[in-house]
Design brief:
This protein is mainly β. The protein has one helix at 76-79, and strands at 3-11, 16-20, 28-31, 48-56, 59-69. It has a five-stranded antiparallel β-sheet with strand order 3-2-1-4-5, with no helix packed on it. Strand 2 and strand 3 (28-31) form a beta hairpin.
Length: 80
C-alpha cells in the first residue's frame, strides 16, 4: 500500500531523514537509497512524498519513495 507523507528533515551528509505520516501514525525513517526517479537522492523539508512502509529493526522504514511536490535544494541548511 502506498502512503503519502511530508519530509520532516533530511540530512544530506548522512543520507537519512524522517517522514511524517500524519496524526496517529509513527514517523518513517528514510535512507537516500529509497528515493527513486532522479540522480540526486536528497529531500527537502516540507516536501510531499509517496512511499511504501516496511517494518525494520528500529521501526517504520520508507521504501520506493517518489517526490510528489517540490524539488530538493542543496543549501547549507540541508548539508549540516
Amino acid at each position: 500500500m502506498r502512503i503519502t507523507g511530508k519530509v520532516k528533515w533530511f540530512d544530506i551528509v548522512r543520507g537519512i531523514g524522517l517522514i511524517g505520516r500524519g496524526p496517529g501514525e509513527t514517523d518513517c525513517v528514510v535512507h537516500h537509497s529509497a528515493v527513486r526517479g532522479t540522480t540526486h537522492n536528497g529531500l527537502a523539508t516540507g516536501q510531499v512524498v509517496e512511499f511504501t512502509v516496511i517494518q525494520g529493526g528500529a521501526g517504520a522504514v520508507a521504501r520506493d519513495l517518489i517526490r510528489l511536490e517540490g524539488m530538493p535544494t542543496l543549501g547549507l541548511a540541508e548539508a549540516r
